[in-house]
Amino acid sequence: MLEKLFENGLWKSRFIVILAVIFGFLGAVILFLVASVDIIGVAKFVITNVINGTHPEHFHEDIVAGIIGAVDLYLIAVVMLIFSFGIYELFISKIDAACNEENENCSTILAIHSLDQLKDKIAKVIIMVLIVNYFQRVLHTKYETPLELLYFALAITALAVGLYFLGKVGKK
């Protein structure tokens, strides 16, 4: 009797993860909004300069950096969504809305069946965030010697090779 009561209480305690789900989702929404506002800011900057006929120094770099920064935020928001959906499905319940009502085929986009799967999906998106962040920083780097350009080319090659092998992970 006491054991059954304890086990029921322990099992129901898993619902505490609903806090992580709610606040992870809220964080994702906030990041989506902030990234969208950043894109609007870039658009205003471009429109203002086109209307005024001005072309500030580093105009293209600033535009690309602003957009890449927003993409970075969008990717982090996706990490938060994957985390929220994954934790919900692992601890609470399957998300019924992800299934097609006609033939019961469930979406596998965010289907997560273990903590390892959740970690793998989050890790892949985080790696993409780091790559996007790298390219955002590279835009404002000044290359003064051929050796610096060679290092840049090697870094891009290393990223490409890493992405290739990352795509191979988990595929049979």
Automatic annotation (TrEMBL):
InterPro entries: UPF0114 (IPR005134). Keywords: Membrane, Transmembrane, Transmembrane helix. Signal peptide: none annotated. The keyword Transmembrane helix applies. The chain crosses the membrane at residues 15-43, 63-88, 122-137, 149-167. This is Uncharacterized protein. It comes from Arcobacter cloacae.
